[in-house]
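Progress against Task 2.4 (sequence-to-structure conversion) is shown through the following example record, which the project officer requested during the mid-term review.
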Amino acid sequence: MISLNNIFSLDDYVYNEKNEFFKPLFQNEYIRIEKIVSEGHCSPPDFWYDQEENEWVLLLQGKAKLKFQNTNEIIELNPGEFILIEPHIKHRVEWTTPNEKTIWLAFFFK
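Structure tokens generated for the chain above:
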């Protein structure tokens, strides 16, 4: 059976003060696709993502800032903007729009 969904649907969204909301949308042996919802969330102090996979992320709603450890650079993302983060490029979510849902679409692949 074919199932129709909407990326902006928040039917299953549950706000958690400490953590972003992650929803797996699709996964096979080659790719994993996740919907992420942030609401003023950022990475914990001194925490860096260090992933084995490439991460291609598209910001759909809200605003966000990503910080990269190797350059100390901060990239601001606005709706419609996307970025490819290669494996082991340490990064963190520095800021997301407070009091508004920031919706991301992330593709993880090798």
